[in-house]
Amino acid sequence: MARIIIVDDSATMRQQVRRALEPTGLDIAEAVDGQDGLEKIIADAGIDVVILDVNMPRMNGIELAEELAKNGRIEGGLKIVMLTTEGHADLIQRAKAAGAKGWLVKPFKPDMLLATVEKLAA
Amino acid sequence: MNTEADPRTAPARGPLARLVDHVRLPGEPTAFERKHVARMNRYAMWFFAAHVPILTALAALNGTGPVAAALLSAAVLLVPVVALRVLENERTRSCVFGFTAMCMGGVLVHVGQGPVQIEMHFYFFALLAMLAVFGNPMVVIVGAATVAVHHLALWFLAPASVFNYEAPLWVVLVHAAFVVLETPVACFMARTFFDNVIGLERQVAARTAELDARNRSMRLVLDNVGEGLVVAGLDGTLHGEASLLLTDRFGPIQESDTLASYLGRRNEESGAWLALAWESLEEGFMPLEVVLDQLPGCLEADGALYSLEYEPMTGANGELESVFVVLRDVTAEVAARALEQDNRETMALFQRTLADRPGLERFVVESRRLMERVQDSLPEDAPAAKRPLHTLKGNAGFFGLETIASGAHRLETAIEAHEEEAVDLGLQSLVERWTAIESTVEDLLSKGGGPGAVVLGRDEFDRILDLVIDGAEHASIAAELTRATLERTSTRLEEIGAQARALAERLERGEIDVALEDNGVRLDRDRFGDFWLSFVHVVRNAVDHGLETPEERAAQGKPSQGRIAVRTYIDGGDDLVVEFSDDGRGVDWERVRERADALGAEFAEKDPTEALFASGLSTREEATGLSGRGVGLAAVKEACDALGGTIRLETEKGSSTTFQFRFPGALAASGTNH
Question: What sign does the CA torsion over B524, B527, B530, B536 have?
């Protein structure tokens, strides 16, 4: 059974992502910034999908993706879906270079996030 | 009309006609056919020229007269030599070789006299078949005819030249039978050769012309279609042709161009998104619909705004092969929409100035304060900006200002998502829009002359002009002019009337009859400002509580249209009176009493009129948003008291209510006098 973690410093955004992914019936964890996310992902080998915000305090989403690539989690099958606002194609390119597979532009459509996560988690 | 061109109306052609059609080559020779036939004619010339020495040599070897052979073959050769000089048409020239071939055959049979003379006849059949190489059945026919004439004539005139024995006529006919057998087949071969090899070029040309016509019409479509159309492969490369709009605005498409690189030349950011999206399409990690949904929907380039649409194109196996991209210039459309929105909002504001000027003024003051609070809190203290933003959104929506409401909504969303850039941009555009709205409102509120303007009615102007013409004293002219700096009550009365009409419509009181009478009264704008602002409550009170619905009125035998009358006049020298009356149901004193008692001793002791004007009293069970909060008439009384005025209320149950506001000495206080 796949497990998802939402890494975003906005509680509203975490709430929206959680609501969008509820239909999957998957277990959903949350982290409030990049550092928190990194710690939780390292501690839990069962997490296999990360919904990742780009702009966050302490450690941003790109840095987190790069960390996860470094310690082999991405190679191990961890799927990253980036969430970003318009105008940051370069940031997504960096995250993709680190191994992120999906990306969604905020404000995202819930069904689009759901379809992406379902495809990646399958 | 060419009936033959249409197979349905053309008469059926007989077998003979079809045979002639088969033998006669159609149309003019094409360049390719001319070249081929000219080459064949040249080869034939050399081939038959070689016959002269060979036949001469054969005659010498065979002892059948080399000189005669040389002369005969040279004479035969003379015919094509002359024909090539005289005739222009290569097809006709070929026909001459049909004749030449058989004559040379005849010379061979002649010089071949002896034991193998009959075998020499093989040459006729060999030549007849070889004539098919011209691709012209007529050449074969000419050859066959020549050999027929040759045999019959020589059999008759010089049999030794043809037969080495005394052959009867039927032998000649046997020879002829072989020719008759070979000729149609050789003709068929020639014609087939013509149609499928020589004529291939003609077929290709016809198909090419057809394709050209189709390409031309396709190009015509691409050049005239209003959209930019192009197909991009899964790797992003642009396939085939693009419509003119695209190449016209974005320049020629380079061979190595992808959609991203091509459009990216004019807009780097959109190019980056397209590159990202196409990469994702190719990788196939994300669902197709998600990638398509996130492709840039619009693009700004060189000051123009384009919309982009994408149509996935799948191959026979249902797999995505390419994407059809449609780009439209929506600059004018977007500008028109923005203008339309702007007009709509200005109209909404304008209606507000008519229906509820004080309300609009309050809205502006309050919104300005909310905007200041938002700007003060952003970006450091974002949460503190949320409450004023939310209030602003609600108020703006109520006043029909969609752009402000949606701008506030976007900013709220950006604050919630912690998107600093989006917050900056959102705030900036909201401030811009608000500034524009504020200036529109200021224009509207100062309509009919700003605070500094002096407005003269036609009657007033005429009166002053008469004074000047009559040579009146300067003091009296000056007094008239000074009076003109005061505000005409007619402006206020018109506003009050408009408010009453708009309210009546909103509250389903139907159309109402409004009578205004200003009697040329002018008042100090600043002194009476608050009083007029509070007057809206009198209007609301009358329309909401006083006037019945048209049905109720009809049931009571009243005219179905409610009536409101407002007038200003001067009484007793310099008392100003403002009178407002309606022909509604009158004040329900019992109800006022009940409410006053319910509110406690403080109210219960008051005289009913006083209670009506006391703060906190409303005869309504629930506030409607218009009246019923119990503050309205109290506000009017307060404004009236401030000016030293008195209020008198006259009401008759079921038929009318009149408020009379009297301001003793008001005109003297205003500095001048009618």
Answer: negative
Fill in the DSSP letter of residue B11: P
Structure confidence by residue, pLDDT tens digits, A11-31: 888 888 999 998 888 899 999
Give the separation between CA B414 and CA B436, rounded to whole angstroms: 23
Tens digits of residue pLDDT in B308-339: 999 988 888 888 888 999 989 888 888 888 88
State the Cα–Cα distance between residues B110 and A61, nearest whole angstrom: 105
Percentage, residues of chain B above pLDDT 90: 25
Token digits of residue B365: 């003051």
Structure tokens at B550: 């048209």
> Which residues from B are below 8 Å from A109, CB to CB?
293
From B273, B418, B421, residue closest to A10, measured CB to CB = B418
Residue of B269, B276, B289 with shortest CB distance to A87: B269
Q: How many CB atoms lie within 10 A of CB B413?
A: 16
pTM given for the model: 0.49
* Sheet containing A27-31, strands listed edge to edge, beginning at the edge strand earlier in sequence: A27-31, A3-7, A47-53, A79-84, A102-105
Mean pLDDT for all residues in chain B: 84
Q: Nearest Cα to A121, choosing from A17, A49, A30, A37?
A: A49
**Radius of gyration of chain A from its Cα atoms, rounded to whole angstroms:** 13
To the nearest whole Å, the CA of B369 is away from the closest chain A CA by 27
Three-state secondary structure call for residue A60: coil
Per DSSP, the three-state class of B284 is: coil
Confirm if B147 and B155 have CB atoms less than 8 A apart: no
Q: For residues B326 and B323, what is the distance between their CA atoms, to the nearest angstrom?
A: 10
**B292 inside 8 A of chain A by CB:** no
Return the number of CB contacts < 8 Å for A and B.
63
pLDDT digits (tens, 9 = 90+) for A27-70: 999 999 999 999 999 998 889 899 999 888 888 899 999 999 99
Signed CA dihedral, B151, B155, B158, B164: sign only = positive
- Contact between A107 and B415 under an 8 Å Cβ cutoff? The reply is no
- Count Cβ atoms below 10 Å from residue B508 Cβ, excluding itself: 9
What is residue A27's three-state secondary structure?
Answer: strand
DSSP letter, residue B516: E
